[in-house]
Structures are given as C-alpha cells and as structure tokens.
Amino acid sequence: VLLTESGGGLVQAGGSLRLSCAASGLTFSSTAMGWFRQAPGKEREFVASISSLTWGRSTTNYADSVKGRFTISRDNAKNALNLQMNSLKPEDTAVYYCNTNPPRSAYWGQGTQVTVSP
Fold this sequence. Notes:
Strand content: over 45%
Helix content: under 10%
Strand order of the largest sheet: 2-10-9-4-5-6
Number of strands: 10
Largest sheet: 6 strands, mixed
Distance between the termini: 37 Å
Radius of gyration: 13 Å
Order of helices and strands: EEEEEEEEEE
C-alpha cells in the first residue's frame, strides 16, 4: 500500500488549502479512509474520516476542532482522498497524513506540511 499526500503549504489565518492523497495497493473504494495530523511536540491526532460508499453514500466524521471548517471527500474513480480546509487557524499547523480508518502503522506516508501564519 502506498499513500501519497500533497497540497500542503504556507497560508495566512483565514485562508484555505486543499489536500489530496493518492492511494494505491488497496481496494480503495471499499476502504474507510481518514486524515490525521501531527503538530510539533504533539501526538498524531484524528482529523476526519469517510466511510466506503454504501448505497451511493458515504458517512463522514470530524474532530470537533475542525468541524464546520474542513470537508473530507473521496473520488473512487481516481483512488483519491481529499481534504478541503477553510478558515484555517494557526493551531491547524501540522503535518497532515492520510491513512485507512482506523489507521494502519505500515501505511503512514511522508505527509504534507500545512503552516498557518497568524
């Protein structure tokens, strides 16, 4: 399994970024996926998750800290997972990772750095 994150960068508070994750080596369409992040000096934490499609619909869940600001989505045709991040705050600064949900230790990639300046 290979998960490759992209789309991070430096943005001012209040700005937006869209992260993407390209997945290979797994049956993506039938796998629940998630975004996680790790800030400097902190443990990795859950950000958002999305279930596989059931009857054409996916279920999403968000950490309270990002609810209403972040939107997770998936494109099964492209084996891609996305995270639209709006109204970014300095406390969103972290390395962002995608993984299955629940995550598997062997699947962690390099992540993508998101830095939000005040």
